[in-house]
């Protein structure tokens, strides 16, 4: 089969002919209908996360079950499915209570396993992790849910517990930030989108942001947000993964506000300092959001099937495998707004 792979950190990924994936006894092989190009894939490509080389990236995907392992009981050949990017073991205490996204024995196609930038991908632990798709949800919509939309969903709905008329400041309008804009607006929140790019803010406005803040070199981000929201945001979400952004988000919160860290902080930035004096004085909450377990997908998918959420609206570019390497490399620089999808078997 054809797959996108790279043999060295930072080496431009290329399309190669490779062996078909072996179906795990407890897993399935999917024919990939669509897979997203995510900045997390870029981080692995840059060496910020350890992967075994040569490596096939890709962790946001949906497709059709082509093969089923002999111990699988809940999935059949021909099923249309998607899969969380974190595959829980299904037997530990965290998985038992519905928190597979923090399973200590987790697996991740695209990181610890070969990923979905390929015509087919193997998915272990299928009974615990594979999620059936409603007929109304396309592969493109399901792939757009990926890690970005599902992580944003838990950030806004579960962790931030955003409600109607609360101010939600979303820092960064890439895929995960725009997902958060759409989700926060769907629950009736007042959304303030923050970015350095006018085109990203324009898309955020079309997706429901009430107002936007375009950052320039001299912008006092926290002060501007407090002015716009008349005292501070109820919720701040760092969808970039930047120490300055995280600190500005915390400083922009009103008393009892919640900061949710969604963007990945790497290297020295992972040890970033936050204004803990404000955390104490204002009784602020600092939370992290890392994907979503399969058990929580049906509620989100029902909103997509009903039209209340439209992740496919985030898709601004569709490409084939031949263009995937360049698209991955481009994730390191500010580019066009929205999500790029690869359709490995299209045409």
Automatic annotation (TrEMBL):
InterPro entries: ADH-like_C, ADH-like_N, ADH_Zn_CS, ER, GroES-like_sf, NAD(P)-bd_dom_sf, Zn_alcohol_dh. One of its GO terms (molecular function) is oxidoreductase activity. This is Zinc-dependent alcohol dehydrogenase family protein. Residues 7-342 form the Enoyl reductase (ER) domain. Its cofactor is Zn(2+). Keywords: Metal-binding, Oxidoreductase, Zinc. Belongs to the zinc-containing alcohol dehydrogenase family. The keyword Electron transport does not apply.
């Amino acid at each position: 089969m054809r797959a996108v792979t790279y043999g060295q950190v930072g080496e431009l990924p290329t399309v190669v002919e490779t062996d078909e994936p072996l179906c795990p006894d407890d897993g399935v092989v999917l024919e990939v209908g669509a897979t997203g190009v995510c900045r997390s894939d870029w981080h692995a490509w840059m060496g910020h996360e350890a992967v075994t080389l040569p490596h096939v990236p890709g962790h946001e995907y949906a497709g059709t079950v082509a093969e089923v392992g002999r111990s699988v009981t809940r999935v059949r050949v021909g099923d249309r499915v998607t899969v969380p990017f974190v595959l829980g073991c299904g037997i530990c205490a965290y998985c038992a209570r519905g928190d597979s996204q923090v399973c200590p024995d987790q697996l991740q196609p695209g990181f610890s396993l070969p990923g979905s930038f390929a015509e087919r991908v193997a998915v272990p632990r299928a009974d615990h992790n594979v999620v059936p798709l409603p007929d109304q949800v396309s592969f493109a919509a399901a792939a757009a849910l990926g890690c970005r939309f599902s992580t944003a969903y838990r950030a806004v709905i579960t962790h931030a517990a955003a409600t109607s008329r609360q101010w939600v400041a979303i820092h960064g309008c890439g895929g995960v930030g725009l997902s958060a804009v759409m989700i926060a607006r769907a629950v009736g929140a007042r959304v303030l989108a923050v970015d350095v790019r006018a085109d990203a803010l324009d898309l955020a406005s079309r997706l429901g942001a009430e107002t936007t803040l375009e950052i320039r070199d001299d912008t006092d981000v926290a002060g501007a947000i407090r002015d716009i929201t008349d005292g501070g945001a109820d919720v701040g979400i760092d969808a970039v993964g930047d120490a300055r952004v995280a600190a500005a988000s915390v400083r922009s919160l009103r008393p009892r506000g919640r900061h949710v860290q969604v963007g990945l902080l790497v290297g020295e930035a992972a040890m970033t300092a936050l204004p803990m004096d404000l955390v104490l004085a204002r009784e602020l909450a600092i939370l992290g959001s890392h994907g979503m377990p399969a058990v929580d997908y049906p509620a989100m998918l029902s909103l997509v099937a009903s039209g209340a959420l439209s992740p496919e609206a985030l898709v601004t570019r569709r490409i084939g495998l031949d263009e995937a390497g360049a698209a991955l490399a481009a994730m390191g620089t500010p580019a066009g707004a929205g999500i790029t999808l690869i359709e490995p078997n299209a045409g």
